[in-house]
Design brief:
Distance between the termini: 36 Å
Number of strands: 9
Order of helices and strands: EHEHHHHHHHEEHEHEEEHEHH
Helix content: 40-55%
Length: 419
């Protein structure tokens, strides 16, 4: 089989992304096991991790553990990546009595609201919301439970000490997707952009983005950027990143202002096309593994759907829309290469990239509600994690055994028809 370059993209979906926790853990453990028995053909290299919202948290945790760090010598290893994933979901979950009570109250309110129970409208900018968070903190809720900044700082305590020359040498990338509210830009916080700014980009490409008006921007990776990716607008105030540069309609002219970000569900879920922007075909991944949280298909018919079931389906469709567009573009380029070859422009720096899907079992994907994406109980998170490990273990065994005959996108995004 040889060593394949793999990019793993992690869809957002609230706490349903605990499934991704399990999948990534099993992928990392399997890679470590296969790497310990070289020469058997059982080998793959994780060259990139991409995510949105909770998927971005998973991608960051894994990448941070795999990236060399001058302050933490345990970083740069698979065990550290697994430890960071475990830390993320253990700390993010409700842990103490007040957090468990708050989680239960939120679940009850969301369930009643989904069934049509009228509640007063609220905004994350209301004073009451800030007072509520302050009250929870006074009662013992942890900062990591209450806010993304607290969670991310605990998850990546030595982020400032990342060994960027070492990252460039390893050529392992992380991306987090978000949307900037006022420009409408699809924005990606990208470790390769950090390397570009430092003159360390491993692929030698510097992409200029300020000489024309465009709706896609790349920013250096930052904890604030990952927080932006998970800022659900109905729940949290927009993530602000000050002094951010934007292009204007005048070529060469830019404007600098505060940037305001919302969840990447509204743009890329998760970023994919940026993974293929390397100038040479050999620098691009051989396969992209999509960790899908939002089911592509659903059972039943609209005439039988309740209001909460309609909202569930709306959320899943929104979460898949941008992803499928990016994946379908890859399939289009693949078909061009199969038809015309890649010896001449504009396909001379392209390659066939196989897209594969890792997804929940049908019973789990179709059985969970949108409201359960806010459930932070340890039981809920661990159950999804365990399923992720089980699914990934079988998936990797099949990938190894079947090789190029293994199922790929779009067919593997489907569930078998119900009996």
């Amino acid at each position: 089989m040889g060593t394949k370059k793999i990019a793993i993209v992690c869809q957002g979906g609230g706490t349903h992304a605990a499934f991704t926790w399990g999948v990534l853990t099993e992928i990392l453990r399997t890679k470590q096991s296969w790497d310990e028995t070289p020469g058997t053909g059982q080998s793959f290299d994780i060259v990139a991790l991409s995510g949105t919202s909770a998927g971005a948290l998973c991608a960051l945790a894994t990448w941070y553990g795999l990236a060399p760090n001058t302050a933490d010598r345990e970083c740069g290893s698979i065990p550290k990546a697994i430890e960071r994933l475990n830390f993320l979901w253990t700390v993010f979950g409700a842990t103490n009595a007040i957090e468990l009570l708050h989680n239960q109250a939120v679940a009850s309110l969301l369930t009643l609201k989904s069934k049509g129970m009228p509640f007063p409208g609220s905004s994350p900018y209301d004073v009451a919301g800030s007072m509520g968070l302050a009250g929870l903190a006074m009662l013992g809720a942890r900062e990591e439970y209450l806010s993304f900044p607290g969670l991310l700082q605990a998850l990546c305590p030595d982020f400032a000490a990342i060994d960027w020359p070492g990252v460039a040498k390893a050529d392992r990338r992380v991306l987090a997707g978000a949307i900037e509210i006022f420009s409408g830009n699809f924005e990606v916080f990208d470790s390769d952009k950090t390397l570009e700014n430092l003159g360390l980009h491993p692929n030698g490409q510097k992409i200029e983005q300020y000489d024309q008006t465009r709706w896609r921007m790349r920013r250096p990776i930052s904890l604030e950027g990952v927080a932006a990716s998970g800022t659900l607008p109905e729940v949290l105030p927009a993530q602000v990143i000050p002094a951010t540069r934007f292009p204007t309609c005048v070529p060469g002219k830019t404007v600098t202002r505060d940037a305001f970000y919302w969840d990447g569900l509204y743009s890329q879920n998760p970023p994919v096309r940026d993974l293929l922007d390397a100038p040479a075909a050999g620098a691009k991944p051989d396969e992209i593994w999509v960790l899908r949280i939002n089911p592509q298909e659903q059972h039943g018919y609209p005439s039988s759907m309740s209001l909460d079931e309609i909202k569930d389906r709306e959320n899943a469709l929104a979460g898949n829309l941008a992803l499928n567009q990016e994946l379908d573009h890859i399939l289009t380029v693949n078909r061009w290469i199969e038809t015309y070859g890649c010896d001449h422009p504009p396909l001379n720096n392209c390659k066939i990239v196989t897209v594969r899907t890792i997804k929940m079992t049908r019973a789990t994907a179709w059985g969970m509600k949108y409201t359960s994406k806010f459930n932070r109980s340890p039981e809920h998170l661990n159950k999804l994690c365990d399923e992720g490990k089980t699914v990934a273990r079988q998936w990797l065994a099949d990938w190894l055994q079947l090789g190029d005959q293994f199922a790929s996108y779009p067919n593997d995004a489907r569930y078998p028809e119900a009996d």
